[in-house]
């Protein structure tokens, strides 16, 4: 590791983004079936900073929470959270980070913005799919409660990520 700046940077970013995603879970507004949080903001920001390697901190975040560290929203933890109503959103963070990271690797503004919004929609779709499976909710109800209500806030977060990330080196 000595002398390998890229590897050192990857480790530092990984630790920082695990912490930031955790912090984003504490900034929440209770809601059913899932709370409004800033976790998705930091997942998308990790993709903008780390590109496709953002999968590393995001997957570790989900794994740490599943193993019992209180990193999920408001400090909840355990595998039970992943099989509960919010599990689909949390698992959806992983492919979303990869998609947004790949999009961010391109120099195109359109691709970057599309990647951020696509990743956000993917998180919500994973959440909706898991709501249908885990709670027996009808697809229409799951879409309304699990996606439609969150879309405006997620659009604002994705836009904010783009504005912040384009200022970074």
Strand order of the largest sheet: 1-2
- Alpha plus pi helix count: 8
The amount of beta strand, in percent, is under 5%
Give the structural class.
Answer: mainly alpha
> Strand count, sense and closure of the main sheet?
2 strands, antiparallel
Mean pLDDT figure: 94
- Radius of gyration, in angstroms, nearest whole number: 15 Å
CATH architecture: Orthogonal Bundle
- The separation of the N and C termini measures 23 Å
Structurally, the number of domains stands at 1
Listing every helix as H and every strand as E from the N terminus to the C terminus, the arrangement reads: HEEHHHHHHH
CATH topology-level name = Arp2/3 complex 21 kDa subunit ARPC3
Q: In CATH's first tier, which class applies?
A: Mainly Alpha
The share of residues in helices is: over 70%
Give the CA-based shape.
globular
Unreliable parts: none
Number of beta strands: 2
Helix-strand blueprint:
Blueprint: H1 5-26, E1 28-29, E2 36-37, H2 39-50, H3 55-66, H4 79-83, H5 87-105, H6 109-135, H7 139-148, H8 151-165
Antiparallel strand pairs: 1-2
Helix pairs in contact: 1-2, 1-3, 2-5, 2-8, 3-5, 5-6, 6-7, 6-8
